[in-house]
Amino acid sequence: EHKRVWWKEATFYQIYPASFKDSDGDGWGDIPGILEKISYIASLGVDAVWLSPMFDSPQVDMGYDVSNYEAVYKPYGTVQDVEKLIEACHAKGMKLILDLVINHTSDQHAWFQESRSSKDNPKRDWYFWKPPRFDEEGKRIPPTNWRSYFAGGTWTWDEHTQEYYLHLYDKTQPDLNWENEECRKAIYDSAMRFWLDKGIDGFRVDTVNKYSKVTSFPDAPVTDPSSDVQPAAQFWCNGPRIHEFIKEMNNDVFSKYRTYDSQPLVTVGELSLTPEPEGVLEYVSAGVKELDMVFQFDITHLGQGPPGCDSKYDFAEWQLPDMKRIVKKWQTFIEGNDGWNCVFTDNHDNGRSVSRFGSDAPEYREASAKMLALCFAAQTGTWFLYQGQEIGMINAPKDWSIQEEYKDVESQNYWLEATRVSEQGTDPTREERIAKGLQLMARDHARLPFQWNSGANGGFSTGTPWMRAHDLYEEINAEAQEKDANSVLSFYKRMLRLRKEHKDVFVYGSFELLDLDNADTFVYRKVYRQKTALVAANFTPLSQRLPRPDKDMKLLVSSHSKTDPDELQPFEARIYIDY
Ligand code: TEU
What we know:
Blueprint: H1 6-9, E1 11-15, H2 31-36, H3 38-44, E2 48-51, E3 55-56, E4 68-72, H4 79-91, E5 95-100, H5 110-117, E6 129-130, E7 133-134, E8 140-141, E9 155-158, E10 163-166, H6 181-196, E11 202-205, H7 233-236, H8 242-252, E12 266-270, H9 277-284, E13 293-295, H10 320-333, E14 342-343, H11 353-357, H12 365-377, E15 382-386, H13 402-405, H14 409-424, H15 430-441, H16 478-482, H17 488-501, H18 503-506, E16 510-514, E17 521-528, E18 531-538, E19 544-545, E20 554-558, E21 567-568, E22 573-577
Helix pairs in contact: 12-17, 14-15
The structure holds 1-O-alpha-D-glucopyranosyl-D-fructose (TEU).
């Protein structure tokens, strides 16, 4: 049985500051806007807020490119505003965690500015600098052939000191050199203690398994001969010193702090590209003292090409059994050990779950939002919700221009690359395929302004929003749903209540998958001692046979107001219990 701790039973609500609420009409969401909506957030029944980066930043990667950890991006507000937010959350009984983005900084960070200023600057070694190589024709080439996340290579040439620097993400996001102890200590002070001392309750730790690189910097094997950059995650992910670094971070910093109500701090790491359960346990087993839990991205990879290379937005068909296999793998991975798990379908890096896993057609989008809420609310682990999920927000309309309306650096880079190879004729259909992939899975979809009401820009801003508001804000918005007992919002609140009331079974129970091969319904059982719950969810727009509940179980909840004893209606989901 799992030891009980607050953060296992808590539901977290992620806020993306740019897109939540603009209080001053400059088109950007801000901290005062979040403060205005604090009662709304608390009314959902969530226990903690995760705020995506609000630090000072040139916003090339929407704040995941930090230029000063100890300052707030001006349009978002001030350090004092964040202090007010910490207080306001605590006054409502909610905890607040911040994003910890420490694999890289922005190239505008003072550390990098110093580092790039000369080869003998004391901070030169805080980043990875390498001399060039030369090919047979004497042409300058980068130190390795690694492919970066946002398309292109991982090395950028710096004229000033005639060396390359490393970046796994955009060229304006140079990787910090964790091999350098002074650099690590500066990270702990500036990015962590500065905010912990102000009373935050923990961190969501960005890219947590990428701090240690294979520092001999070998070339990756050529898997794509048509490209000069190759997937190379084996050299920058889960590297040789990663566990040493995270243990040090925990020992020197995390373990020294408590939450505002004197409980253990919480840390949730972002652990991509670590598919094997055993490898994950090395990070989250309570005994190893690294992280409390990590996000696993298998679920968000449904429909994407292989991670770590150029096929992310090359849509790949998937079936419901694929999703079931993933859920089962992570639901059962913490059985019999002291690790923990995260449950989520949405975040700021993915298309909306209704559009990806359900249906965003007008007649089905509410039903699928509720079905997904129910299907995930009964799973073991800590539940993370992303802003707008609770009102069933959907992807941007398909007729929006990718070039004009999509703002994300990743989308734009993929789009440029796809149009280029199409023009060159090397892959004439790539442009069309990538367009389709972006329309479904681009990170932009989650970043549309929150739809508060039917006013201009969905009530998000009185100015011109940095990203266009969804065409459907009159149909999908929080204000209308607050008044409607049958809305997606009301259903989320109900599921959050039920999850608390039935936490033994939902949060801590063991998981058993039924009928893996059924491609229409997702059915599983949760068991805690003498208590059993049966969850059945219809992922199709057709009626489906309802699997017979065991013994004489009683209906706890259905996502539809009228239920049929033998059939699940389109996108209906139910829970039966026997206690
Ligand atoms: O994402 C880290 C990351 O590597 C991927 O899991 C993620 O899917 C990303 O979208 C790459 O396609 C984190 C942040 O969540 C993301 O917003 C940042 O862009 C990234 O780090 C760089 O800081």
